[in-house]
Every structure is written in C-alpha cells, then in structure tokens.
Amino acid sequence: MSVEIRGLNVTIDGKSIIRDVNMDIADGERVGLIGSSGSGKSMISRAIMGLLPTNATVSGSIRLADRQIVGASDRELADLRGRYVGMVFQNPAASLNPVMTVSRQIALPLRLHYDLTRTERLDRVQAMLDKVGLPADVATKYPHELSGGQQQRVGIATALITSPRFIIADEPTTALDSIVQRHIVDLLVSLVDDAGASMLFITHDFAVLSRAATCCYVLDNGAIAETGTTADLLDHPSTEQAVHLVSAARELSLNNATIAATSACVTGMTASRGGTEQTHTRLYDSDIRQEDGE
Ligand SMILES: Nc1ncnc2c1ncn2[C@@H]1O[C@H](COP(=O)(O)OP(=O)(O)O)[C@@H](O)[C@H]1O
Ligand SMILES: [Mg+2]
Q1: Is any atom of ligand 1 closer than 6 Å to the C-beta of 33?
Q2: What is the pLDDT of residue 252?
Q3: Which of 9, 10, 12 for a ligand 1 pocket mutation test, highest count of atoms within 8 Å of Cβ?
Q4: Structural domain boundaries of the chain?
Q5: Boundaries of each ABC transporter domain copy (predicted)?
Q6: Ligand 1 within 6 A of CB of 47
Q7: Is beta strand 166-170 parallel, antiparallel or unpaired with respect to 198-203?
Q8: Reported pTM
Q9: I need a surface site. Which of 41, 52, 142, 149 has the fewest CB within 10 A?
Q10: How far is the CA of 140 from the centre of ligand 2 (A)?
Q11: Residues 34, 86: contact at Cβ < 8 Å?
C-alpha cells in the first residue's frame, strides 16, 4: 500500500510538534524514519494510524492508497488498523496482553476483522507461529513465559496475521539486546517482503536502520532534515542531526568493513542525494550465529 504525506502539522496545546512533513512510501517499499528521542517519530506514526492524542490539532494530508486519514471517522480508522495497517511496537512486554495466551493474542485481529471459524483461526495462528520462528507449543503460553525476542516475534505475528498491506514498526527492537535485534529486524524485513507489503521502520539507530530500509528520512525537532538512501546518509550525513546519529551508530559498531550499496530507492528520493553506486561503512557483521540468547 502506498503512503503519501503532504504538509503534515501536529500541534499540542499550542506547541508545534510536527512541522510541514512530506513523505512518500511506494507500494511494497521499506522506508526508514530516523531521529533522536523526542524528535516526533512516534507522533508521525500515530498520525498515520489516526491515533493522535485527543488534544492534538492536525492539518495536512495523509493518504494510504486512496484513503485520506486526516479527518477520517473513528469507524474508518478502526477498519484500517489491524486489517490493512499492521503495527509493531517498541516494548513487546507492554504491548502484549498479560492475561491472554499467545494464540488468543495473535488471533485477536482475525476475530475483529474476519468471520472465520475457530479452527480456521487456529490454523492461521499455527502457520504464523511457524513463519515467525516460534515452536507450536508457544501457542498456549502467556507473554511472561517468553523471552523478549520471543515476545517481539509474537508482536510481529499479531501485526501480520491479517496480511496487512502496510506495516508501521515503531522502534521494534529498541528494547532488545543487539544480536536479538538483528534477528528480529531480519525476520520483519523478510516477512514484509514476502507479503509484498510496504513498511515504515522507525528507529533512532542507524545500525538497525541499515538492515531495515534502503531509503530514509531524518527527523529533527518535528521536521524532515534530510532524505536519501541509507547508504548515502551513512557516508555523507550533511545535517547536524544526521552526523550525530551516524556517529552514535559508529561508536556502537563492531565492524568497519566496507560493502557496496546495491539497491536504489523506489520513491524519488535518490534524486536529492545522487547515485547509489558507492561504498559505505558496514555497521553490522553479516555473519551472525544462531546462539542469540532469545
Ligand atoms: N500526549 C502528548 N502530549 C503532549 N506532548 C507530547 C505527547 N506525546 C509526545 N509529546 C511530545 O511530542 C514530541 C515528540 O514525541 P515523540 O513523537 O514521542 O518522539 P519520538 O518518538 O521521536 O521519541 C516530544 O516533545 C514529546 O514531549
Ligand atoms: Mg517514539
């Protein structure tokens, strides 16, 4: 599903939180949104889902395929969420219901949006558990019985069970340790690509972003400071905010080998940053072993 944001402004109690944001995500494309804490990343994701705080004032346009989100009714928005738009949140422990088994949790969006028999739902849940790499017996467990990585696999399964056409992942790996982070990002990317869905991947960490999205927007104090391919931004960050985020990622990086950037952006962003036939610093070792402590 394509996403087109034009002139988005969000104000809360007279304070400007999001300023004149424009963003494009083509159908089937993965795009990153990176910025430091408090820059407004979650506010943009809430605006796209129609879940802004009640005291927020919003103007501009957010189109998901042919639907306008700004000013849409609660009913229209509820129909979109979970069915066409899947959400993966930062803290899986907090976003899962502690008194629901994994199976009921994952089945919930199906119960809300589709008229299936119990057996049909359970079959889909089992197939989904397999896709996210969880054993079948996890179905009857409760969230507290799972590790953080397993909980986020349940979060991803819940987001993807209805085969949504667009996924918003808001810092989905921030609460996890770094090796589990890589597995979760890689899993999300492969499932989103297999489904042919588009994704907005939100993070404050360029190392995570470089695995998740080819193109990205850098957010600074509620406004887009810079856009381009993730590879170009890693090599030549031009704004202060991007320089800061790149150097923070490099400090955490274990490996400074260089690799060739291979793919281009689907949307028109490349034009603003030049070509993609460049090398950039690899932030993660691709040779990741399986013993990850999940
Ligand atoms: N419910 C709210 N009411 C008022 N201000 C808020 C609310 N939620 C977030 N903010 C403010 O909006 C700004 C952006 O927040 P947020 O989108 O959560 O940032 P990020 O996700 O990039 O860390 C911050 O200054 C934050 O204090
Ligand atoms: Mg946030």
Answers
A1: no
A2: 64
A3: 12
A4: 1-84+199-267
A5: 3-246
A6: no
A7: parallel
A8: 0.88
A9: 142
A10: 31
A11: no
